[in-house]
Write a structure and sequence with these properties.
Blueprint (H helix, E strand, L loop, with lengths): L12 E4 L5 E4 L6 E5 L2 E2 L2 E2 L5 E5 L8 E3 L14 E4 L22 E3 L4 E4 L1
Antiparallel strand pairs: 1-2, 3-6, 4-5, 7-8, 8-10, 9-10
Amino acid sequence: MPTTEGTGSDKPTIVDNHDGTISVRYDPKQEGNYELQIKHNNEHIDGSPFKFYIDSTNKGTVTAFGPGLTHGAAGDPCAFTVYTKGAGAGNLQVAVEGPSKADIQCKDNKDGTISVS
């Protein structure tokens, strides 16, 4: 079962998707350098620890982030998140160009983000 380490309200939320994957959600309160460690059987997975910087986002800015924007494996879903909080009403379009047809699924998370896979 997934576990978390952190202090106080800075603990991430981990959800078992019951399909062999988990989702991790973290709402950083401050800008700065962060490190995410992911371990399986007490061993770091490839790439862990992941180091990243949290910056402030201007209201109205639409951004996208996640592993599906940088790499993937043929036959596996490539997931990423689009952040739209504060952007106001509008039409969001997602397209993927490549050597094969992409079946794109979008899910409104009702929190200003959209999950794309």
